[in-house]
From TrEMBL:
Transmembrane region(s): 6-28
Gene3D superfamilies registered for this protein in UniProt: DD-peptidase/beta-lactamase superfamily, Guanylin
UniProt GO molecular function: guanylate cyclase activator activity
Full protein name: Putative beta-lactamase-like 1
Localization of this protein: Secreted
Chain ranges of the Beta-lactamase-related domain: 71-406
One Pfam family this sequence matches: Beta-lactamase
InterPro entries: Beta-lactam-related (IPR001466), Beta-lactam/transpept-like (IPR012338), Beta-lactamase-like_AB/R (IPR051478), Guanylin (IPR000879), Guanylin_sf (IPR036382)
Family: Belongs to the guanylin family. Belongs to the beta-lactamase family.
A Gene Ontology term for the protein's cellular component: extracellular region
Chief location bin: secreted
Length: 628
């Protein structure tokens, strides 16, 4: 019995020892495992570019097709025979139509009614506000409006409204003009971006009010700004109607609707877009309905027409979207102007229905992209025109009926579209342009005799720049030491890295941003017959009463060999060689008058010293040098 207890104790002791040993090993390994995990996390690189460049795509693309099928199913399932009987939608990408869909019936009350198509007309309600904004930007681009930030009073000197919230407004009942230092200006840009502070509607009026701009200004004199201009997002139909009518009357000398028809609709061939609900237009329209299924009347807005009167088709809205994205022939506004128009202006407070406002946009973010949109709702109709400028992507949805309250069709559609389009652009092969004649660029180049490059031509005649030589940093992976050059125009190229690439590249102790360098411009400067870089013919170096071009000074320096002696000894040596230097056949002609002077040696020594001891950039910092 005693032996059995002894054996049992030994077994227990052995098991206890194994458990303690395992615990010790586990405890010992934990820090190392944690370090290994940290290293793995640290080595997970963030890849770039964050936003791919929109390029021409070769269709079909499986991911895009799947996204569009989901959008088709989304809109098809949103049709409701009572409150949303008709939907038309179009997606544009770059400068072409990617997809269009039409669902339901044009007239739900007619059993024989056909489905709508891309030429079916709908009221677009507040999407109409895009047109006063286009008018503002066109007049600004043409120089007829001096600044987008001109105060309204510049064009309407009898404008006044109470502003109790302004800095120097006095009492709440005092009438404060919005020009000068008395308050932040009520500017044209703020009027077009829901930052005017003007009320939503004129006091005691509705959308059918038939007054004119003079009567509107009189009503405003006894009204109050809802917010100090430029400080808060506040939706205002008054701002857009006032902006459109004043620009038309005071700047163009015409009426707003005629100007839009002549300068926008006609130029973009938007033949099925307009203001007047003629009998022919009404026959072509999808029949709008209220939520109970009752048909909505087609009435004309009064003074508020610029803010919401217009009708259009999905096909015409596609032309407008492509124009705003810089396509469709670029017939309306320059790209810089479009970029300004599509840029967010102000971040709104949390209770506003969008994150930011623009001219005239409501702007929200999806997948880190700004989605720029304009919504419109008017009895029996709803419409949205939306853009993702970074992807050159646009979507318009026109509805006869009530916009669904339980989901945002536009945001849901973009949840399918944006990842698919982004993926398609990332996977697309970039087409690089070769120079007309690559011969002048092929060869070996150096930067300050430290970094060396060879430029070659690949099989597609595109230039490739590759680093070589004794100072190649092996810490930089080989694929990032080879750079492609995309030809843009004479001697100007764009640097192109093979995507994807690390956003930041560790080189020894430094960190280099490859994304900042990708797509940078690369300029080849011309060389003269002697192989000298002609920095600028306007750069001159002054020596006493003489002035010499930078090219001549560099040529003078090229006649002298480098010397390792001190600066003082070098100057004396060059002075001693003055006669030989002045008689040298390669001496530039503009130094001959200097050679006739007694102190020519000292002057030449200073010039040679400058040319041989400094590179071109450092010479430009020399006090005697001008024109750099």
């Amino acid at each position: 019995m005693k032996v059995k207890w002894t054996m049992l104790g030994m077994v227990v002791f052995f098991l206890l020892s194994v458990v303690m040993t395992c615990c010790f090993i586990w405890q010992y390994r934990m820090p190392k495992m944690k370090k290994e995990m940290d290293v793995k996390e640290a080595t997970t690189e963030e890849m770039c570019p964050h936003f791919p460049e929109p390029v021409p795509l070769k269709h079909p693309i499986t991911s895009l097709r799947a996204a569009l099928e989901k959008i088709d199913a989304l809109l098809r399932s949103s049709v409701d025979t009572t409150k949303l009987p008709a939907i038309s939608a179009i997606v544009v990408l770059n400068d072409s139509i990617l997809w269009n869909g039409n669902f339901g019936k044009k007239n739900i009350s007619d059993p024989s009614s056909p489905a709508p198509d891309e030429y079916t007309m709908y009221r677009i309600a507040s999407v109409s506000k895009i047109f006063p904004t286009l008018m503002l930007y066109k007049l600004w681009e043409d120089g007829l409006v001096e600044s987008l930030d001109d105060p309204l009073e510049k064009y309407m000197d009898n404008f006044a409204i109470k502003n109790p919230l302004g800095e120097n407004s006095g009492t709440a009942s005092s009438s404060v003009r919005t020009l000068g230092n008395r308050s932040p200006g009520l500017t044209l840009r703020r009027m077009a971006s829901q930052l005017s502070g003007l009320p939503r509607r004129l006091r005691s009026t509705n959308l059918l009010w038939s007054g004119n701009t003079k009567a509107a200004l009189k009503l405003l004199q006894d009204d109050v700004l809802v917010a100090d201009p430029g400080t808060r997002c506040h939706y205002s139909n008054v701002a857009f109607s006032l902006l459109a009518n004043i620009l038309a009357q005071k700047v163009t000398g015409s009426d707003f609707e005629s100007w839009v028809s002549d300068n926008i609709l006609e130029r973009l061939s938007m033949d099925d877009t307009g203001f007047n609900l003629t009998p022919n237009v009404q026959r072509r329209m999808a029949v709008g309905v209220y939520s109970n299924g009752q048909p909505a009347p087609l009435y004309n807005l009064g003074w508020y027409r610029p803010a919401g009167q217009m009708f259009s088709t999905a096909a015409d809205m596609a032309k407008l979207m492509m124009t705003l994205l810089g396509g469709y022939g670029g017939t309306l506004l320059h790209q810089d102007t479009l970029n300004t128009m599509l840029t967010p202006v102000f971040r709104c407070h949390s209770n506003y229905f969008s994150n930011a406002t623009g001219t005239p946009w409501e702007i929200n973010e999806q997948f880190n992209y700004d989605v720029v949109r304009k919504d419109g709702d008017l009895d029996g109709y709803a419409a949205t025109l939306s853009l993702v400028p970074r992807l050159k992507l646009g979507l318009v949805i026109l509805m006869a009926g009530v916009r669904p309250a339980d989901q945002d069709l536009v945001s849901q559609a973009y949840s399918y579209l944006i990842p698919a389009v982004e993926s398609a652009f990332r996977d697309a092969q970039r087409t690089l342009r070769p120079p007309p004649n690559p011969a002048p660029y092929v060869g070996f180049f150096t930067y300050r005799n430290i970094t060396f490059y060879e430029i070659k031509v690949d099989s597609d005649r595109v230039l490739i720049m590759q680093q070589f030589g004794p100072h190649v940093d092996t810490a930089v992976p080989a694929k990032y030491r080879t750079i492609q050059l995309d030809y843009l125009q004479d001697r100007v190229f764009r640097v192109v890295f093979q995507s994807p690439y690390p956003c930041k590249l560790k080189v020894n102790s430094a960190s280099v941003s490859l994304e900042a360098q990708d797509r940078q411009l690369f300029n080849f400067y011309p060389f003269n017959k002697k192989g000298l870089f002609q920095l600028s013919t306007a750069v001159t170096v002054t020596e006493g009463d003489f002035q010499f071009s930078l090219e001549s000074v560099k040529a003078l320096g090229a006649l002298m060999t480098g010397d390792d002696s001190s600066a003082e000894q070098a100057l004396r040596l060059i002075e001693a060689k003055t006669a030989a230097l002045c008689s040298h056949p390669a001496l530039p002609e503009d130094f001959k008058p200097l050679c006739l002077r007694k102190d020519a040696g000292a002057s030449l020594a200073r010039l040679v010293f400058m040319a041989t001891r400094y590179d071109s950039c450092e010479i430009c910092e020399y006090p005697a040098c001008t024109g750099c």
